[in-house]
Specification:
5 helices; alpha+beta; about 325 residues
Amino acid sequence: MCTAVSLSGKKHYFGRNLDLEYSYEEKVVVTPRNYPFSFRKAGELKSHYAMIGVAHMQANYPLYYDAVNEKGLAIAGLNFPGSAHYMPFQADKTNITPFEIIPWILGQCAAVEEAKRLLEPVNMLDEPFSTELPLTPLHWMISDAKESIGVEPMRDGMHIIFNPVGVMTNEPPLEYHLMHLNDYIGISSAQAENRFSENLPLRVYSRGMSAMGLPGDYSSSSRFVRAAFVKENMPEEATDVGAFFEILESVAVPRGSVQVGDGKYQYTIYSSCCDAQKGIYYYTTNKKRTICAADMHRENLDGMSPVAYPMTGEQEILWKN
């Protein structure tokens, strides 16, 4: 369970909720331009665009969950367990493993259009990082300030889908979620009025009644609709970091609300908002609601080693008396 959002207005913000029942001790990681990315079947990128995002560091290799590069192109990987399908090696294709796709795209592309061209010959290779880290079934949202796409590797091939909503969750595939929005065509943020019957003295007794029927559960389809509704009705002048976190909060999963068995619960581990143009990565965690930030441009972007910041810390309480 996860939700990713791309929001463009005065600025372009990109981020996500990571919803899991455990943490891999993920960190905010800046990968500079000269860190050599060695891909299993696709050679090496000795020099590339710098990037910042959240990753699990393994043997000094950043396994990115989501990231943005210095050109403002952003990607998030989300769980896609029922439909994701990876393939054996194909000699006539560009073979990229799922854990390589984020740095492979961000290292070479400055915009969605470039990413689409690079993805056309891709075969999503069924090869794990290691025996201890098996592959996770994923699909991805890729966004710049102008557009978003969904990238879904399935049994019938790679699907690259224009995403006009700029929202992504999990199963089913993106085309279902886009079609499902039609079921909520009557939902509105406007003041409600009686359209039920001219013969009945029905009255508006509360604000927000035009949004009755908006789903409130934590399923992927409901989170997609709710995030899209909140995002699409956000005033343009409110497109700032605070507004972005409001969208994510509307679909955050509280602890105890989603059981996954054996006494475990899935919940929102972290929420992120990246200023894609400035390369500033803002985040909160379940344990620390204070917004934290890391600026990629405060690091040596011509360096050769990733710089990682733990996403740790306890909640700070600002006492007023």
